[in-house]
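Example 3.2
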Amino acid sequence: MPYSMLYKSPVKNLEIISDGSTITHVLYKYDTTTLSYPEKPDLEIFQSVAQWLDDYFLGNNPTIDFPLSPPGTDFQQRVWKILQTIEYGDLNTYGDLAQEVGRQLNKPKMSAQAVGGAVGRNPISIIIPCHRVVGKDGSLTGYGGTIDNKIKLLELEKVDMTQLYRPAHTTKP
């Protein structure tokens, strides 16, 4: 049976979901009046994840020492495994990820858009670091937790933000 726990993070509240022994989701939670499943914050796995998140938000690079089991297709799983190889404080592009997926599948070409779709469906935010993926020109492209939160996470990891392209907000007169 799935269980939930609310974690109050510096970027946004997070709902952590577990099947009782593994983590299946870490989702940005905008409405905290209800959770998706019964709350059971005393589960050992929730305590491990909360400690990991505490360490992460202190600017540390904690080791993931709890099992993850994000639900998804074989293709999505492959992309999410590659995401987990992007080191703390490093970035990768959708094109780089597509090349790696193509290499693993023995395909000469792989669509960066298909990879981007899988990245966008990552159900375990922050821990599976989809925020470390940028466009080919260094642009901070979509992030389900908002671009502002993506920037905060990258700044926390001390990524050199001067190397990234951030389109200026324009306002009409």
